């Protein structure tokens, strides 16, 4: 499957999964396109669509927590920011993601 097709498959699959978690794609379509493209490249290199914004450690158990969408593993943190770490997904009620800010996980109690 070529990169463009794979990107569309990931887009459709992600949309269904994150919908159940109360999230949606960011309205910033350029960003969605760019991040999905990076995920396709990571999948081609490493076998899974890893997060474009988090480092692959080489520890399989840990790395499985950063396969997109990683929301279930970082729920408290992302819910506090109303977006995932990359900003690919935002809470469903977010209309302007530029108003959101990133909060380090260290600032989230018990994260
Ligand atoms: S931070 Fe966002 S883009 Fe990165 S893996 Fe998690 S859900 Fe996907």
Oligomer: single chain
- Which ligands are bound? iron/sulfur cluster
**Helix-strand makeup class:** mainly alpha
Q: Report the CATH superfamily.
A: Ferredoxin thioredoxin reductase catalytic beta subunit
Number of domains: 1
State the CATH architecture.
Alpha-Beta Complex
Number of strands: 2
Reading the helices and strands in chain order gives HEHHHE
CATH hierarchy, class: Alpha Beta
Structural account:
The chain has 111 residues and is mainly α. The protein is built from four helices and two strands, in the order αβαααβ. α1 (3-20) packs across α2. The longest helix is centred in the N-terminal third of the chain and has 18 residues, at 3-20. The radius of gyration is 14 Å and the shape is globular. Bound molecules: iron/sulfur cluster (SF4). Residues 35, 51, 53, 66, 68-71, 84-86, 88-89 line the site of iron/sulfur cluster.
Summarize, please.
The protein has 111 residues and is mainly α. The protein has a single domain (3-102), classed as Ferredoxin thioredoxin reductase catalytic beta subunit (Ferredoxin Thioredoxin Reductase, Alpha-Beta Complex).
Defining key terms:
111 residues, mainly alpha, Ferredoxin Thioredoxin Reductase, two-stranded antiparallel ribbon, 4 helices, 42% helix, binds iron/sulfur cluster
What's the layout of helices and strands?
Layout: H1 3-20, E1 23-25, H2 29-46, H3 60-63, H4 75-81, E2 89-91
Antiparallel strand pairs: 1-2
Iron/sulfur cluster binds at residues 35, 51, 53, 66, 68-71, 84-86, 88-89.
């Amino acid at each position: 499957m070529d990169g463009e097709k794979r990107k569309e498959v990931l887009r459709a699959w992600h949309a269904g999964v994150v919908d159940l978690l109360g999230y949606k794609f960011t309205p910033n379509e350029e960003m969605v396109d760019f991040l999905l493209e990076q995920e396709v490249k990571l999948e081609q290199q490493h076998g899974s669509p890893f997060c474009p914004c988090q480092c692959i450690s080489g520890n399989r158990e840990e790395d499985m927590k950063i396969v997109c969408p990683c929301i279930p593993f970082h729920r408290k943190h992302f819910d506090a920011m109303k977006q995932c770490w990359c900003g690919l997904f935002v809470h469903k009620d977010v209309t302007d993601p530029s108003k959101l800010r990133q909060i380090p996980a260290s600032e989230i109690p018990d994260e």
